[in-house]
Design goal:
- Chain A: Pfam families: FTSW_RODA_SPOVE.
- Chain A: It is found in: Membrane.
- Chain A: This is Cell wall polymerase.
- Chain A: It is a multi-pass membrane protein.
- The complex is a heterodimer of chains A (422) and B (670).
- Chain A is mostly helical and 422 residues long.
- In chain A, 71% of the residues lie in helices and 3% in strands.
- Chain A has one domain (2-205, 259-416).
- Chain A has 18 helices and three strands.
- Residues 1-6 of chain A have low confidence and may be disordered.
- Chain B is an alpha+beta fold and 670 residues long.
- Chain B is 36% helix and 18% strand.
- In chain B, strands 2, 3, 4, 5, 10 and 18 form a six-stranded mixed sheet that branches.
- The longest helix of chain B is centred in the N-terminal third of the chain and has 26 residues, at 7-32.
- Classes of the chains: A mainly alpha (422), B alpha+beta (670).
Amino acid sequence: MIQQQGNRFFFNVDWITVLIYIALCSIGFINIYASIYNPDKAAAGFDFGSSYGKQLIYVITGLILGLSILLFDGRLFNVFAPFIYGITLILLVIVLFVGRNVGGNQAWIPLGSFRLQPSEFAKFGTALLLARYVSTFNPKFRDIKSIFIAAIIVLAPLMLIMLQPDTGSALVFLAFMFPMYREGLSGYFLLIFLGMIVLFIADFLVPTYILILILVTVGGLFIYANKRKQKIIISTVLVTLVAVGYLFLVKIAYTKVLEPHQRTRIELMLGLKTDNKGAGYNVIQSQIAIGSGQATGRGFLQGTQTKYGYVPEQSTDFIFSTIGEEWGFAGCTVVIGLYIFLLLRLINLAERQRSTFSRVYGYSVACILFFHVFINIGMTIGIIPVIGIPLPLISYGGSSLWSFTILLFIFLKLDSNRMGFI
Amino acid sequence: MDQLFNRKYIVQGLFIVIAIILLAKLFYIQIISDKAFLSAESNVLKKKYKYPARGAILDRNGKVIVQNEPVYDLMVIPNEVKPFDTLSLATALDITTDDVRKNLRKARAKSNYQSTPFVKQISVQSYARLQEIMYRFPGFSTQDRTIRHYPDSVAGQLFGYVKEVSNDDIEKSEGYYKPGDYKGKSGLERSYEEVLRGERGVINTVYDAKNTPQGSYANGKYDINAVSGERLISGIDIRIQKLGEELMLNKVGAIVAIEPATGEILAMISSPGYDPNLLVGRDQGNNYMNLIGNPYRPSLVRPIQGSYPPGSSFKPIDALIGLQEGVIDPNTTFNCPGYYMAGNHKVKCEHVDGNISMRKGIARSCNTYFCHVFQNLITRNGMKNQRQTYQDWRDKVAKFGFGSKLDVDIPFERPGYFYNADHYDKVYGKRWGYTTVISQAIGQGEITATPLQIANAMAIIANRGYYLKPHLIKAIGDKNQVKKEYIKKNYVGIDAKHFEPVIDGMQDAVNSGWGTAVLSRIPNIIMCGKTGTVQNPHGKNHSVFIGFAPRDNPKIAIAVIVENAGYGSIYAAPIASYMVEKYITGQVTGSRAAGVEWMKKQNLLPAIIDKTKKVKLTKTDSLNIKKTDSIKRIKDSLILKPGITSKSVVLKPIQSKPALVNNKPETNQK
């Protein structure tokens, strides 16, 4: 009977997603191998002590971890969501005290030879609790209270991660806006968010007084077009005022809140500054490596920028530059294509769930992956400032790989169980 | 499913939009722009260039007249430099410690990672000293180079000079030249640059991000060996080139000698000249400025840029065209009362010979005779058709190479002036005739020619009716390739039979008692020639001689022009005769050898020929200041650096003071 049930669960697993998962992990392994490839050492045979050797172990253990998650009872995740969330929060607090400082961020808890990065695990903890909250109370996010509670769930880990400080990982938590949007949060929040980003960038490129002039003009025209609708007039005036205030806030926050290296990264991305040897070196070299791949790439192990170490952190955050150089535009298209296919499929899977819990969780998984992919690739090709977050399933690193595996396979488990009631 | 289901499409749409943005940017940097690809190459590959030796140049007897000398550039990669003993480096290089610091700063400003020149063109001696202590200066390396050496120290203007390429050259070459390359800038070095330069070699080395060499790139597949430039054989006979420059010492002018049968230029002297070795090595810049500033303009290549009226040397051509057109025959005589009346304008003649024949007319350079010939030529179709007959005559003369470039193989040749009928239409309307342009009959007035054109005209007479394009380089490379254009005979449209009577007159000019150049007769060699005394509106007449020898199977055609030297027979003709004798017999013998020495000592430099100094000033005070200033500058520029003057053959510091004060040449002593 148990055996039969197990078979049914495995049968219901979305194997296409698993295949994409394996494909991405393999691409990761191949490119990590290429990133640290050294002809002299390669002759000595496969080296389990090296990064690619470790990554192979991570992939295999990750796969085992994923498959064993499929053996759990899906209902457990719903039940234990608050506990998992709580544990990750505690870990996030612990890391602030005992964490190892790597690259300026207090993000790692040393566990023997292994280092744990709690921020990675906080993602699915938060996703689970958010799903639990939405499925339990079905808030539809029409009232301030429900938005406030959801915001607390998301912002608590976000703030703790900001304290490390690991801005990149913290930013990923903004991805939870999308599942909330799907569950009823007004689209205006997304628009306002988008508007904030646009104004933030515009504030650097255009003098503030011109921006104010534009805002006031647009607001004025809008009021003129709706001059009989008092309500719209009032809200427009409010929005315009807030936007103008935001402009000044950005200026102040920029100089007072952001760290100097963050300011530099933003300025580099916006082209306000060039610094090919200092802070801009990473981005420039990464773009050179990717661009030099041209249409079909230089071929496996043939990338000169990769082989001779011109791109720092190439096996972790800048792994995409290896793909770009050695596999060219064709390879990049395949990788981005795989990601987009995976993301679209995850959304489709989420939509076919009967339970709200599974759906919210599915959306969270897709959107977290999306943020990672967009920010990471965008960073390597210079359309986003340097934000150090890994490329899911491809970048070197156990914590990252395992956390994405857990994130994904929990959803696959929930999906395989979609006919049941949770 | 509720209406919120539709929000799925917004989220999925956002994913797709972002994916497209990422792919668009990737498409741009990977496929459209090749900037990244090029940067990647320059990241990884460092090219070390191997510079080829330029081709050597030999004279017609196989003597090397242009060769190479090894020098070394000391290069530095600033990033690899460790603190070092600046004093010992400075001592080895013969520079000061301040220079060491300054050069290092300069190199650093250029590039920290690339190999940049630190000190260029170190001599072999300094290099030997440096080699022993090089290990103490990490980051420094030497780069083999070669520079030119001219063993005979003559013919500076012909050889030209070689210099590091300018930014302009690099841009114009569309990628051929790279900073640090050398390029011929003038003379033969320029016109044969593509043959002489050879091919630059390159060694590609792969470097990693820490700037550690990782071995050769693709097993040296893209490395190139340097290929030396091709050897050139010139038609120059360096012995007479040297003799010519010595004879022209302290004189302004030009000599061109051509082998008529081949068009090869045997000697081409531009005086004052300079030692081509001055424009080599580290003092190149300073010496160049000195040459440019010299008022006697040694940088001018007078044989192809000087513009002289051909004067009486033009008369044989008049005779030839007259014979060809049938307006005279060899026995035609004209009466010379000592002048010729062109309308109411009097053309003077030096003699009163009464009835004079063509042969004697040439030998005695009778102006009257050739004015008559010209008159007959232009008026042969009646007074109304003079415009047409003038143009016809002009075209026939032009076939001798006047009025257009001869395309000699060194740059910056000038065509000289020789006007078409149109020009006179413009100046005089329709109202002009032979009397208006009569001065051209005797090679004066509106016709000017380069010494090369004049010598070439002489080669045509020597060849009895044709010439080969005059050229300095007769064969290129190991295969001794000859340019096709140099073996083509260019006929001038005069029948061979007409030449002998004219040559008779020219033979008499040198060899008979009544000739103008009889003092320059060469024992045992029949030289045919023609003196000329060119009226010079700016000062004393120019002395001209043209000729060829021997009369049968001529081996050399020559034109000599000595500016401000008076009669052709006094300076130009003897100089030509010495050159001819030396070329044909190998030496100048007997009493004539003393004549050579005397000639070398003559100083005929004019006071000032610096036209740029003609400054219009109203205040007499400032005029005086300018004058003294310019004289001082002339003196300064003539006194070159002591180390150099010993090498310099031609431009010895002359006694500039007497020349400036007393303009009269020492002919009075005779």
